[in-house]
Design a protein that fits this description.
By secondary structure, this protein is of the alpha+beta class. It is built from three helices and two strands. A hairpin with a 6-residue loop joins strand 1 and strand 2. The longest helix is centred in the middle third of the chain and has 9 residues. The protein is globular, with a radius of gyration of 12 Å. The model has no long low-confidence stretch (mean pLDDT about 90).
């Protein structure tokens, strides 16, 4: 995932091709890993921002094929 500030705010977006410019952070393709990273505030630290919106990353992980149903 990378930080996208083009929309006026700090937004985390998925970068499966690893080709988007900017500072990136690795995350396992697992919703639990995202939740743990959010609780630990690891993503803003890794991306060097005060706060970051992870809605797009969460949506990507929830819509992923093969994801176990709750």
């Amino acid at each position: 995932m990378v930080r996208d500030a083009s929309a006026g705010g700090d937004l985390a977006v998925v970068d499966p091709g690893r080709s988007l410019p900017g500072r990136g952070a690795w995350l396992h393709p697992d919703l639990q890993c995202l939740e743990l990273a959010e609780r630990r505030r690891a993503l803003p630290r890794a991306l060097r921002v005060g706060s970051i919106d992870t809605t797009a990353v969460r949506r990507h992980l929830e819509d992923r094929p093969g994801r176990p149903s709750a």
